[in-house]
Amino acid sequence: MRKNSKEAIVKAAISLFNSNGYSGTSIRDIATLSKVNSATIAYHFENKLGLLEYCFTYFFEQYISRMEEQFTLVEYSAKDCLKRVAAELLHYQCENIELTSFVYREMSMDSQVVREIMSTYSLKEKYYFQKIFEKGFERKEFRPHSIPYLIIQFKGLLMTPFINAHYLREVLYIFPNERFFEQKYIKEINGWIENTLTIKAIEKKEAIL
Question: Torsion angle, CA of 174/180/181/187, rounded to 10 degrees?
């Protein structure tokens, strides 16, 4: 068995799942691209569903880990914590654009795998976001909002470029895999944090009006 066969299989699967979709990709396709036989894929992942589950788990383990690393900042500043979380998650997604795009696309489907992911990783993500917003309200860094709607908006900002990566490239000529995009887009997210959440920014606007 080839030394890095598992890594090659995962890389091929991510590429094919992203370009052809999960249902449009066969084990034979993955075996051909990764230059292994089907038995090797079965050895590592059992079947195509096992490979999908592995990709999901890998993506969300890294995603949540990055959130947890930045969450300690919430004790000092909820706003700075949210900005650091945004920067880390955006960077991670830009570095892994194919994996991110296909995971988000598949997460829109109602399946047993997706329900399992939502019952674990999505709830962890919600917990951290909720705690950051609550701390911001408590310390009067943030103007009070409905937390579920804030999560929708914040998640939307983080996810949209990767759900619509093809639209960005073909219509807007924006390339989420380029460093310039990451630098520009994090400024937009920080602008949303400052102008939508931060009390001082809201008060300054109201004073001008």
Answer: -140
pTM of the model: 0.89
The answer as to whether 159 is a domain residue is: yes
Same domain, 30 and 64: no
Query: HSE on the CB side for 118, CA within 13 Å?
Result: 11
The answer as to whether 130 is a domain residue is yes
Q: How far apart are CA 40 and CA 33, in angstroms?
A: 13
Taking the C-alpha atoms of residue 74 and residue 135, their distance in angstroms, rounded to an integer, is 7
Distance CA 106, CA 18 (A): 10
pLDDT digits (tens, 9 = 90+) for 77-104: 999 999 999 999 999 999 999 999 999 9
Domain that holds residue 11: 1-46
pLDDT of residue 114: 86
* Domain identity same for 76 and 159: yes
For residue 58, what are the contacts with CB-CB under 8 A and spacing of at least 6?
10, 99
The DSSP line for 114-173 is: HHHHIIIIIHHHHHHHHHHHHHHHHTTSB----HHHHHHHHHHHHHHHHHTHHHIIIII-
Share of the chain above pLDDT 90, in %: 75
User: Which pLDDT does position 42 carry in this prediction?
Assistant: 94
Is 112 within 8 Å of 49 (Cβ atoms)?
no
76 lies in the same domain as 175 = yes
| Residue 127 structure tokens | 């917990």
| One domain for residues 151 and 76 | yes
